Amino acid sequence: MRPYELSLTAAADAIRTGRLSPVELVDSVLDRVERLEPRLNAYATVTAEQARRTAREAADDAAAGRLRGPLHGIPMGLKDLIDVAGVATTASSRVRADHRAQADSTVAARLSASGAVLVGKTHTHEFAYGLTTPQTRNAWDSGRVAGGSSGGSAVAVAAGTAAFALGTDTGGSIRVPAALNGVVGLKPTYGLVPRHGVTSLSWSLDHVGPLTRTVEDQALVLAVLAGHDPRDPASLAVPAQDYRPGAAEDLTGLRVGVPRNYYFEHVDAEVEAVVRRAVDRLEALGARLVEVEIPMTRYIQATQWGLMVPEATAYHERTLRAAPELYQADVRILLEAGELMPAGDYLRAQRSRTLMRREWARMLEDVDVIAAPTVPATAVPSGQETITWPDGTVEAVSDAYVRLSAPANLTGVPSLSVPVGHDTAGLPIGMQLLGRPLGERVLLRVGHAYERTRPAREPAPAARRVH
Amino acid sequence: MSAAELTPPEAAHWAARAGLPLPAERHAAAAATANHIHAVVAVLRELDFGDTPPAPAYRAGEERHDAAV
């Protein structure tokens, strides 16, 4: 196995025991970047020189017995909304062409202090305002969308051009591309991971979280990211935790909620079948399946839009007036139309969120996690704009992709997307596990138990073809 | 078109009032997108909020502190 193929956990173990040097690992990943990037375009910026320099320092430290932790010498990608001092945060937009970040974001500083090595900044749908990341190609089929908005991060992790990456998630932007590229994505509890120094799409819905190849890897990254920072007004003061899931596969006593409404409606038949098989596997591990009724589903999209549209427009107020022509057409029109939303609509969405959070808390008293599809369809061909469901309903691709992930943003509950199989075209399918606020350990335990029942995942085939 | 929908000149007027003068060629698209967004968020008017406060910023875990299983 070549170094770039190792999971974060395996690479960390190899570095800790001296079987692998950070220089070998980073060189292997950078070589992979050089071969695959011309086709995948997962990165907006590759910081190769800086990465090699940091890797050498990490190797020297490792040789001297100074390991900073499990991320020591591990190559990572950061979504290009996350500030790294001295590097542009382009948000994959011409608006940010001359940008240069003055300081590290909280998450970049924490990762750097833990010894992780920056490979580069990964592409996002422009300013995270979209679900496809059109400039980046899906790691499994270069003719299909990467998903978004953290498309570059998901593709890099799937293709082996980063051992892990960070994304942001306002309506599903970590979990959607994770599902479409066959990797693991976590949207943590609102406030668990500080957003200071991260470009906002919608303050009250934005989250930062990891994309990894295994559930176990998630725990190592989350432990570094979590923790209070007063510079993010939503940041929670919670004690540090060990998120590692442990070896136990037994899920006896765990109650898994299976939605009887919403999450399996207008879902591709193959996606539904694969996710239901994965839920059955949780039952086989000892979990008890409990039917749940998802509350207030009629108001999910309305609440999401009522919050996101005016908040995004507010963030872009100055540049939308100064240089509107620099935005892509799809983002510009949404920002402009956002100027026309009355404050009354925004307040109704805020009050609806209050109701929705209460209803979800009530529902989550009866179950420990909820299992559902992450997205209702696999990756569509690039350029396809709508999905037609068997009953004749036509839905915009972006509306479909965000539909099942948005509730976790509205309610703030943690949500983990785990790869659970493929459709007949060979495209990855994700299962979403939703938990109680600050229930990340439970999600990782369940996801890990599921993962251990499956053979190790092969790398994405679109990436495998190049050697 | 319902009475609640904005015409392109009305969209231009309200955008200008919000401090965003729109060039003429954008009036129709801005009106269409604003009308679509309005149609989506308008269903929130069905809800009886009573005394429900808004949640502009919130603590995701405030209702319960026993999340661990």
TrEMBL record, chain A:
Identify the Pfam families for this entry: Amidase
Recorded superkingdom: Bacteria
Which InterPro entries has this protein been placed in? Amidase, Amidase_CS, Amidase_dom, AS_sf
Q: Where is the Amidase domain?
A: 24-444
Name of the protein in its database record = Amidase
Q: Which organism is it from?
A: Streptomyces endocoffeicus
UniProtKB/TrEMBL annotation, chain B:
Protein name, per record: Amidase
Tell me which species this is from. Streptomyces endocoffeicus
